[in-house]
Amino acid sequence: MPAAWRWTFVGLIAVVALAVALWPRAQRPGPAASPTASAQQSDSGVTAAERAAAALADCPRPTGAAAAGSLAGITLDCLNDGHPVDLAAALAGRPALVNLWAYWCQPCAQELPALQQFADRAGPAVTVLTVHSDPAEAKALARLHDLDVHLPGVQDGAAKVRTAVGAPSVLPVSVLVRADGSIAKVIVRPFGNAGDIAETVAADLGVRV
């Protein structure tokens, strides 16, 4: 083979090898994220299983009554399902007892069962809503489960409700809200029992149950 042809052949092989080396490879797809796992956990880190285990009542929903008062503009997530709740709209049209508590608060733990008993006694006459005032939502759900309390509740790690009603930074605090959204009274003490709650609601909200 003439030398010129031999060098031409070698050069051709080098060009082909370079082209193969530079040819773009198809990227192999990475492992797909599990839609089931992501769907079971909310942005707060609380799983659907944790919410289901607590078995809390549904949060109140807007009835169409005019929303006003100190709680207007506050939207918090429902502990039952994680959905947002417009507090003023949800409470409008009916007297309400809004109870601020936290999972670590021992007086709250003693008071919450009494609130459950009062709510069972009051029925639709008074809305009883708990407000967990600490960022640890999962611990709130576990605490309510342990106490066998299934009241509707919302998560308020930023203490929006306490700030709005001007309550001191202690717990528990109960806020009595009139049907028109105005605040009847802010109670800075734990209730002793369901009868104590009923007497206070009768005196300050005018509702006897």
From TrEMBL:
UniProt keyword list: Cytochrome c-type biogenesis, Disulfide bond, Redox-active center, Signal-anchor, Transmembrane
Start and end residues of each Thioredoxin domain: 65-206
SUPFAM superfamilies linked to this entry: Thioredoxin-like
Top-level taxon in the UniProt lineage: Bacteria
Compartments, record wording: Cell envelope
Entry-linked InterPro entries: Redoxin (IPR013740), Thioredoxin-like_sf (IPR036249), Thioredoxin_domain (IPR013766), Thioredoxin_ResA/DsbE_sf (IPR050553)
Keyword Transmembrane on entry: yes
Coarse class of the protein's main subcellular location: other
Record-given protein name: TlpA family protein disulfide reductase
Organism of provenance: Nocardia albiluteola
